[in-house]
Amino acid sequence: MMNCLCANTRRAARLLTRFYEEQLRASGLTSPQFEILSALAELSRLGRPGIAQTDLAAMLGLDQTTLSRTLKLLIASGWVKRSRSTLDRRETLYGITSAGIRARHSALPHWERAQAQMREALWPDFEAALALLQGVTRAATELSAA
Known about the structure:
Blueprint: H1 5-24, H2 31-45, E1 51-52, H3 53-60, H4 64-76, E2 80-84, E3 92-96, H5 98-122, H6 126-145
Antiparallel strand pairs: 1-3, 2-3
Helix pairs in contact: 1-5, 2-5
């Protein structure tokens, strides 16, 4: 294996995604769907019922094409709704529906089990690993914006 941060991070991301996908499979949600629903649920909880696709993509670190494809599936499932911004009628906002909240809620125990298993596997370094990944994300964001 190359001694390369990018190659090792991509490999870890593929393996982690596969692990979480296996855990979430019984809920009927994929890992990206769960992540988007979780972000929209948190925004809704904070009193923000909708977010523009561009802002959501930036928040999640996703490209527009991937996010658009996943949003279409979530809308078709009735878990996400589209609405027009009251400030700018040209802007489309995305928000979670009550069915989306229920779908996320039913997937939550599967995600929590995956988190617990990863926490146990990485103990006592789970928090350090999480902080390191957040630092890598910040650095990559700053460097790619420069």
